[in-house]
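Teaching soon. Got one?

===
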Amino acid sequence: MKNNIVKTRLSSNQPVVGVLSNSADPTIAELCGFSGLDFYMIDGEHSPVTTAQVQDIVRACEVSGITPLARVRSNDPKLILQFLDAGVMGIMLPGVRTAAEAEALVQAINYPPKGKRGFAPVRSADYLLGTMNQSEYIEFANEQILVLPQIEDQEAIDNLDELMAVDGIDGFVIGPRDLAMSMGFYDGASHDEVKRTIAGAVEKINRAGMIVGTTAVTGDQARALFDRGVRFCLVSLAGLLHSAAADFTKNR
Protein backbone atom coordinates (compact mmCIF):
# COMPACT_ATOMS: atom_id res chain seq x y z
CA MET A 1 0.00 0.00 0.00
CA LYS A 2 1.38 3.35 -1.13
CA ASN A 3 0.43 6.83 0.00
CA ASN A 4 -2.69 7.96 -1.85
CA ILE A 5 -1.49 11.22 -3.37
CA VAL A 6 -4.92 12.00 -4.84
CA LYS A 7 -6.64 11.63 -1.47
CA THR A 8 -3.98 13.80 0.15
CA ARG A 9 -4.52 16.55 -2.44
CA LEU A 10 -8.28 16.36 -2.09
CA SER A 11 -8.03 16.60 1.71
CA SER A 12 -6.14 19.87 1.14
CA ASN A 13 -8.92 21.11 -1.17
CA GLN A 14 -6.72 20.81 -4.25
CA PRO A 15 -8.42 19.79 -7.52
CA VAL A 16 -7.38 16.58 -9.28
CA VAL A 17 -7.89 15.47 -12.88
CA GLY A 18 -7.77 12.03 -14.41
CA VAL A 19 -9.03 9.63 -17.00
CA LEU A 20 -11.68 6.90 -16.93
CA SER A 21 -10.20 4.18 -19.10
CA ASN A 22 -11.70 1.09 -20.70
CA SER A 23 -8.31 -0.15 -21.92
CA ALA A 24 -6.73 -3.34 -20.62
CA ASP A 25 -3.31 -2.23 -21.87
CA PRO A 26 -0.96 -1.19 -19.03
CA THR A 27 0.96 1.02 -21.47
CA ILE A 28 -2.03 3.37 -21.67
CA ALA A 29 -1.95 3.80 -17.91
CA GLU A 30 1.79 4.40 -18.02
CA LEU A 31 1.41 7.07 -20.72
CA CYS A 32 -1.32 8.81 -18.73
CA GLY A 33 0.99 8.95 -15.73
CA PHE A 34 3.91 10.37 -17.64
CA SER A 35 1.51 12.89 -19.23
CA GLY A 36 0.86 14.47 -15.83
CA LEU A 37 -2.64 13.27 -14.96
CA ASP A 38 -3.38 12.74 -11.27
CA PHE A 39 -5.35 9.50 -11.41
CA TYR A 40 -6.12 6.60 -13.72
CA MET A 41 -9.60 5.16 -13.21
CA ILE A 42 -9.85 1.58 -14.47
CA ASP A 43 -13.36 1.12 -15.82
CA GLY A 44 -14.56 -2.23 -14.54
CA GLU A 45 -18.13 -1.48 -15.58
CA HIS A 46 -18.20 -0.48 -19.27
CA SER A 47 -15.15 -2.41 -20.45
CA PRO A 48 -13.72 -5.90 -20.96
CA VAL A 49 -11.03 -5.34 -18.30
CA THR A 50 -10.81 -8.37 -16.01
CA THR A 51 -9.55 -8.59 -12.46
CA ALA A 52 -6.62 -10.66 -13.77
CA GLN A 53 -5.47 -7.62 -15.79
CA VAL A 54 -5.87 -5.06 -13.01
CA GLN A 55 -2.60 -5.92 -11.26
CA ASP A 56 -0.42 -5.11 -14.27
CA ILE A 57 -2.34 -1.87 -14.90
CA VAL A 58 -1.73 -0.86 -11.29
CA ARG A 59 1.98 -1.64 -11.65
CA ALA A 60 2.13 0.64 -14.70
CA CYS A 61 0.44 3.40 -12.70
CA GLU A 62 2.99 3.09 -9.93
CA VAL A 63 5.90 3.24 -12.37
CA SER A 64 4.63 6.50 -13.90
CA GLY A 65 3.45 8.16 -10.68
CA ILE A 66 -0.31 8.18 -11.30
CA THR A 67 -2.79 7.04 -8.64
CA PRO A 68 -4.70 3.87 -9.64
CA LEU A 69 -8.45 3.96 -8.98
CA ALA A 70 -11.27 1.77 -10.29
CA ARG A 71 -14.94 1.86 -11.10
CA VAL A 72 -16.29 -1.58 -10.24
CA ARG A 73 -19.37 -3.00 -11.91
CA SER A 74 -21.32 -4.00 -8.78
CA ASN A 75 -21.41 -3.73 -5.01
CA ASP A 76 -19.92 -7.22 -4.65
CA PRO A 77 -17.50 -7.42 -1.70
CA LYS A 78 -15.43 -10.18 -3.30
CA LEU A 79 -15.10 -8.26 -6.57
CA ILE A 80 -14.12 -5.07 -4.73
CA LEU A 81 -11.64 -7.11 -2.70
CA GLN A 82 -9.85 -8.30 -5.84
CA PHE A 83 -9.38 -4.75 -7.13
CA LEU A 84 -8.10 -3.54 -3.77
CA ASP A 85 -5.78 -6.49 -3.23
CA ALA A 86 -4.16 -5.72 -6.61
CA GLY A 87 -3.26 -2.24 -5.35
CA VAL A 88 -6.13 -0.02 -6.51
CA MET A 89 -6.30 2.95 -4.12
CA GLY A 90 -9.88 4.06 -4.54
CA ILE A 91 -13.23 2.65 -5.59
CA MET A 92 -16.00 4.43 -7.47
CA LEU A 93 -19.27 2.49 -7.44
CA PRO A 94 -21.90 3.34 -10.07
CA GLY A 95 -25.60 3.55 -9.43
CA VAL A 96 -25.63 4.01 -5.65
CA ARG A 97 -29.13 5.06 -4.64
CA THR A 98 -29.60 4.41 -0.92
CA ALA A 99 -27.72 4.78 2.35
CA ALA A 100 -27.80 0.99 2.76
CA GLU A 101 -25.94 0.57 -0.53
CA ALA A 102 -23.40 3.20 0.49
CA GLU A 103 -22.88 1.51 3.85
CA ALA A 104 -22.31 -1.83 2.11
CA LEU A 105 -19.64 -0.19 -0.05
CA VAL A 106 -17.84 1.20 3.01
CA GLN A 107 -17.95 -2.23 4.64
CA ALA A 108 -16.51 -3.93 1.55
CA ILE A 109 -13.65 -1.44 1.17
CA ASN A 110 -12.43 -1.22 4.76
CA TYR A 111 -10.73 -3.74 7.00
CA PRO A 112 -12.12 -4.26 10.51
CA PRO A 113 -13.05 -2.51 12.68
CA LYS A 114 -14.30 -0.02 10.04
CA GLY A 115 -15.47 -2.70 7.62
CA LYS A 116 -15.46 -6.36 6.68
CA ARG A 117 -12.72 -6.58 4.05
CA GLY A 118 -10.89 -9.90 4.19
CA PHE A 119 -7.15 -10.01 4.78
CA ALA A 120 -4.49 -12.01 2.92
CA PRO A 121 -0.77 -11.67 2.08
CA VAL A 122 -1.55 -9.90 -1.20
CA ARG A 123 0.16 -7.30 -3.34
CA SER A 124 -1.44 -4.29 -1.65
CA ALA A 125 0.03 -5.50 1.65
CA ASP A 126 3.50 -6.06 0.10
CA TYR A 127 2.72 -9.78 0.48
CA LEU A 128 3.51 -9.19 4.20
CA LEU A 129 7.15 -8.77 3.23
CA GLY A 130 7.28 -5.00 3.69
CA THR A 131 8.13 -2.83 6.66
CA MET A 132 4.61 -2.75 8.14
CA ASN A 133 3.21 -5.47 10.33
CA GLN A 134 -0.38 -6.61 9.81
CA SER A 135 -2.05 -4.19 12.23
CA GLU A 136 -0.03 -1.22 10.91
CA TYR A 137 -0.96 -2.07 7.32
CA ILE A 138 -4.67 -2.45 8.13
CA GLU A 139 -4.81 0.96 9.79
CA PHE A 140 -2.84 2.57 6.96
CA ALA A 141 -4.95 0.98 4.23
CA ASN A 142 -8.19 2.14 5.84
CA GLU A 143 -6.81 5.70 5.84
CA GLN A 144 -5.61 5.67 2.25
CA ILE A 145 -8.49 4.16 0.24
CA LEU A 146 -10.79 6.67 -1.47
CA VAL A 147 -14.51 5.81 -1.27
CA LEU A 148 -16.64 7.46 -3.98
CA PRO A 149 -20.24 6.38 -4.68
CA GLN A 150 -21.44 7.56 -8.07
CA ILE A 151 -24.67 9.60 -8.28
CA GLU A 152 -26.45 8.56 -11.49
CA ASP A 153 -30.11 8.39 -10.57
CA GLN A 154 -32.88 10.70 -9.43
CA GLU A 155 -33.42 8.42 -6.43
CA ALA A 156 -29.84 9.13 -5.32
CA ILE A 157 -30.50 12.86 -5.62
CA ASP A 158 -33.64 12.45 -3.51
CA ASN A 159 -31.64 10.49 -0.91
CA LEU A 160 -28.55 12.69 -0.97
CA ASP A 161 -28.85 13.85 2.65
CA GLU A 162 -28.98 10.23 3.85
CA LEU A 163 -26.09 9.25 1.57
CA MET A 164 -23.90 12.06 2.88
CA ALA A 165 -24.56 10.93 6.45
CA VAL A 166 -22.95 7.52 5.86
CA ASP A 167 -19.69 7.30 7.80
CA GLY A 168 -16.69 6.43 5.67
CA ILE A 169 -17.77 8.08 2.41
CA ASP A 170 -15.20 10.56 1.10
CA GLY A 171 -17.44 12.13 -1.52
CA PHE A 172 -19.55 11.57 -4.61
CA VAL A 173 -19.04 11.58 -8.37
CA ILE A 174 -22.01 12.75 -10.43
CA GLY A 175 -22.62 10.96 -13.73
CA PRO A 176 -24.50 13.53 -15.87
CA ARG A 177 -25.58 11.26 -18.73
CA ASP A 178 -27.15 8.51 -16.63
CA LEU A 179 -28.66 11.05 -14.27
CA ALA A 180 -30.26 12.84 -17.22
CA MET A 181 -31.73 9.57 -18.51
CA SER A 182 -33.16 8.76 -15.08
CA MET A 183 -34.87 12.17 -15.23
CA GLY A 184 -36.41 11.33 -18.59
CA PHE A 185 -33.96 13.21 -20.83
CA TYR A 186 -32.60 10.55 -23.14
CA ASP A 187 -30.66 12.86 -25.45
CA GLY A 188 -28.09 14.07 -22.92
CA ALA A 189 -27.47 16.29 -19.92
CA SER A 190 -27.76 19.69 -21.62
CA HIS A 191 -31.28 20.40 -20.35
CA ASP A 192 -31.76 23.19 -17.82
CA GLU A 193 -33.51 20.91 -15.33
CA VAL A 194 -30.57 18.50 -15.36
CA LYS A 195 -28.09 21.36 -14.98
CA ARG A 196 -30.04 22.75 -12.02
CA THR A 197 -30.18 19.32 -10.39
CA ILE A 198 -26.43 18.82 -10.77
CA ALA A 199 -25.67 22.33 -9.52
CA GLY A 200 -27.85 21.76 -6.46
CA ALA A 201 -26.10 18.47 -5.69
CA VAL A 202 -22.66 20.06 -6.08
CA GLU A 203 -23.62 22.86 -3.71
CA LYS A 204 -25.08 20.47 -1.12
CA ILE A 205 -22.06 18.13 -1.16
CA ASN A 206 -19.71 21.12 -0.90
CA ARG A 207 -21.59 22.47 2.11
CA ALA A 208 -21.14 19.11 3.81
CA GLY A 209 -17.38 19.42 3.35
CA MET A 210 -17.19 16.35 1.14
CA ILE A 211 -15.48 15.72 -2.20
CA VAL A 212 -17.63 16.30 -5.26
CA GLY A 213 -16.64 15.08 -8.69
CA THR A 214 -18.03 14.88 -12.20
CA THR A 215 -16.99 14.69 -15.83
CA ALA A 216 -15.53 17.25 -18.23
CA VAL A 217 -14.56 16.99 -21.88
CA THR A 218 -12.13 19.91 -22.14
CA GLY A 219 -9.73 21.77 -19.89
CA ASP A 220 -11.97 24.84 -20.04
CA GLN A 221 -14.91 22.79 -18.79
CA ALA A 222 -12.76 21.40 -15.97
CA ARG A 223 -11.68 24.89 -14.90
CA ALA A 224 -15.31 26.07 -14.85
CA LEU A 225 -16.21 23.10 -12.66
CA PHE A 226 -13.33 23.85 -10.28
CA ASP A 227 -14.66 27.40 -9.95
CA ARG A 228 -17.98 25.89 -8.81
CA GLY A 229 -16.36 23.73 -6.14
CA VAL A 230 -15.84 20.46 -8.02
CA ARG A 231 -12.50 18.96 -6.97
CA PHE A 232 -12.46 15.58 -8.73
CA CYS A 233 -12.75 15.83 -12.51
CA LEU A 234 -12.50 12.95 -14.95
CA VAL A 235 -12.71 12.47 -18.69
CA SER A 236 -13.13 9.25 -20.63
CA LEU A 237 -10.12 7.94 -22.52
CA ALA A 238 -12.05 8.30 -25.77
CA GLY A 239 -13.09 11.85 -24.86
CA LEU A 240 -9.53 12.85 -24.02
CA LEU A 241 -8.23 11.46 -27.32
CA HIS A 242 -11.02 13.13 -29.28
CA SER A 243 -10.41 16.51 -27.63
CA ALA A 244 -6.66 16.29 -28.17
CA ALA A 245 -7.10 15.18 -31.80
CA ALA A 246 -9.54 18.02 -32.50
CA ASP A 247 -7.11 20.55 -31.08
CA PHE A 248 -4.17 19.05 -32.99
CA THR A 249 -5.97 19.03 -36.34
CA LYS A 250 -7.96 22.29 -36.13
CA ASN A 251 -5.49 24.33 -38.21
CA ARG A 252 -4.68 21.85 -40.95
